[in-house]
Amino acid sequence: MKPLYTGLLLALLQVLLVCTLGVKLLYDRGHRPRTWIKVATYDPNLPIRGRYLAIALEVPAEGFTSQMESIYDREGKPTTHEAFDPRNCDLVLRDRQAIAVGDTMGEFHAAIRRQDDKLIATLNGDMTFFLPEHANVPFSFSHPGTDELWVEATIPRKGPPRPIRLGIKRNGVLTPLAID
């Protein structure tokens, strides 16, 4: 076979491979459950810069046990804080709400905290939401404590949720953002 034909065949195989991934993602979006999840943004330590949000999911938690742990603060003084076990969890969808369920062999690492007598898990996972270059993004959060960032995500069988779109929850009302 001529080198030109071999190169074209290899290029065609690569395009087909990428297309199968795209078909799988489109199938999941159409057939897997989706839900709105509260998120927190953070600044990742990544070499790429641009218009994207690095987000961590904040979901209700269950199946974690707490114990008081002694540690030393920055000045070297002993202090105690509440620590939770296990450190890992699985993400489960119940009644259209994502919940972190404690599991020592779980897929996600979770930071657990108590908020209003409820356990909240912040899932540590690399989840990014890319924004269009010329999008008008209303992330003013001019009302601290009342505005929350939420993401609608597809929940796959395995792996982290796949973000679809963003929304702002203000005064208990979730409004999807038109970022196109």
How many helices does DSSP assign? 1
Number of strands: 11
Shape: globular
Strand order of the largest sheet: 2-6-5-7-8
State the end-to-end CA separation: 46 Å
Rounded Rg? 21 Å
> Percent of residues in helical segments?
10-25%
Q: Report mean pLDDT, rounded to a whole number.
A: 84
Let me know the largest β-sheet. 5 strands, mixed, barrel
The amount of beta strand, in percent, is over 45%
Structural domain tally: 2
Low-confidence stretches are none
The helix-strand sequence is: HEEEEEEEEEEE
Structural class: alpha+beta
Which features characterize this protein?
single chain; 180 residues; alpha+beta; 2 domains; 5-stranded mixed β-barrel; two-stranded antiparallel ribbon
How does the SSE layout of this entry go?
Layout: H1 3-31, E1 34-42, E2 52-62, E3 65-72, E4 78-85, E5 88-94, E6 97-102, E7 108-115, E8 118-130, E9 147-154, E10 162-170, E11 173-176
Parallel strand pairs: 2-6
Antiparallel strand pairs: 1-2, 1-9, 2-8, 3-4, 5-6, 5-7, 7-8, 9-10, 10-11
Question: Can I get a quick summary?
Answer:
The protein has 180 residues and is an alpha+beta fold. It is built from 1 helix and 11 strands. The chain has a 5-stranded mixed beta barrel. A two-stranded antiparallel sheet has the order 3-4.
